[in-house]
Amino acid sequence: xxxxxxxxxxxxxxxxxxxxxxxxxxxxxxxASGSAIGLGNIVFFGANAYKYGGxxxxxxxxxxxxxxxxxxxxxxxxxxHVFRLSFPMALKRVAGMAGEFLGWWTLVNAGxxxxxxxxxxxxxxGMMVYAFNALWAPVSPAVPAFGMAAGALSTPMAxxxxxxxxxxxxxxxxxxxxxxxxxxxxxxxSIEKAVQVFVPTMWAFMLxxxxxxxxxxxxxxxxxxxxxxxxxxxxxGEVWKGAxxxxxxxxxxxxxxxxxxxxxxxEDSDQMGNAxxxxxxxxxxxxxxxxxxxxxLFAYSIVPKASTLAMTFFVLPQGIAQFPAAVTFFGVAFFxxxxxxxxxxxxxxxxxxxxxxxDKFHLPRFGAIVTFSxxxxxxxxxxxxxxxxxxxxxxxxxxxxxxxxxxxxWAFSYGLIMSGLGTLLIVAWKYGxxxxxxxxxxTSRFTLGKGFCFNIRYIIPCVLAAIxxxxxxxxxxxxxxxxxxxxxxxxxxxxxSLATACFAVWAIGSxxxxxxxxxxxxxxxxxxxxxxxGDPL
Length: 537
Ligand code: TRP
Description:
The chain is mainly alpha-helical. It has helices spanning 3-6, 25-36, 39-51, 58-83, 87-130, 155-164, 168-184, 188-214, 219-227, 237-250, 257-262, 271-299, 308-320, 327-361, 365-384, 403-441, 450-478, 495-519, and strands spanning 489-490, 493-494. Strands 1-2 form a two-stranded antiparallel sheet.
């Protein structure tokens, strides 16, 4: 089966015969859409849509989806298809060291996102336990650790602050990382098992939720809110930036994930078709969740919050608490579903990083998984446990300026888009957009023509560069994110220096780590992945 040995393989092929493969096309679609569907779809979308002007958000969102999202996904899938290698190794085939560096940098940036994503999942798990009863108590408990009296906060808020002031987040982080390792232990085989159960369950539950939401008295009015445009807001660059970041995040683009997942497909796969199917599933799920959530909030006249974390942990539980029946069922199930959705996303990054480590260094899979999970556990604890920054917990407990917020600002709003821009420059300019399209067209139902090539060569890079430029301009104008934050002394730290330190750790740390992975020599049979070593492009 190893075609690169009998000489019939296209010269680009880089994978080997023992590369894992998805058991079926369905398994792949479940895994790719499971990666795409995550916390981003269930609450971030609604919070962003609300923050950026309700219905008006749809215009930038849809433009970002069709103009940028689907084509970039086709490019990321295409890289895996053409080279049958993980992200850094595939980019190395096209652009040597520079390409490989971008690939590792992407994975490091995504690794940081994974650490705080798991921190959020650990809170979801922690809150799930309380959803069996305490979360629905009429009067909120005191939160002694943060100095808040009984009744001072809404019940979900008080429960949340109580939860994060105990050891629960640490314990929950360990559980979530254990599950990440468990579901990636046998690669595609174990991922398939997880997504076959989790993804259909998530859909079933969201369909129940949309029916529940719309049948609440006045529930349908929430939908109107979500679809009532505020056109003025379209003039603000921030909205376009927000829409683009949301599209990258929700579609799992700029993580290096889709390339690894596509590299496990048979050679005759239709990658443009896969990109359309995966994006469609993702966005349908997102819209269903958006309508479900807004109808619930509206039915109980709860003002949605622009903060995604507030939506997840305080606002929605307040709505569910007022359901006429089955509060505990809906409450617990909602946290369970969010945990499942998050896990099918986080395992996709674990798999992509592990796949890259195996491709380059020929590490044993189990060793790579255990090492990454151990590092990830420590990182996630730093994000999830307030005692890390303030052992006495004498801060006021607002979620204003936490480590999570500070890293999210760089890794999410800039990192993903930077990776996307670099990938397009390498694929469309170095490899050649037409040549790339030709490769994909061989096995694709949709023919990628001149429009696609023009788009990935000129339009998308310009759009992404403009968005990054806008961000940097604002950063220079207003001071580095967080350095002028109103909460100056957060949890015993001077807010400004904490913010600057986080930026430095993200910027310098990711470059150094990516450099180390790039310059360490390849080992084992994939040392031949190096174009300089006699593998012509
Ligand atoms: N697409 C996911 C979402 O919408 C985010 C995501 C994808 C992710 N892959 C990930 C987050 C890996 C962390 C790690 O929520």
